[in-house]
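Severity: low
Component: inverse-folding endpoint
Summary: output formatting inconsistent between runs
Steps to reproduce: submit the following structure tokens with default settings.
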């Protein structure tokens, strides 16, 4: 049970790190692309957090 929880935390950290590097790469191209990538990344992150909340039955 502890291993499953640690794996979920590790999975989340890897996802957030990948998203951060993705956005950083777009900021290296130019600022406008970085802003769009940031917005898109936050949109995906918000959507996934809502899916997790609904799956656990804690949706507002």
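Observed output (run 2 of 3):
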């Amino acid at each position: 049970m502890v291993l499953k929880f640690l794996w979920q935390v590790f999975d989340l950290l890897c996802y957030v790190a990948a998203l951060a590097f993705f956005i950083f790469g777009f900021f290296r191209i130019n600022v406008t692309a970085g802003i769009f990538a940031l917005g898109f990344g936050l949109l995906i992150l918000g959507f996934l957090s809502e899916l997790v909340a609904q799956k656990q039955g804690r949706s507002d």
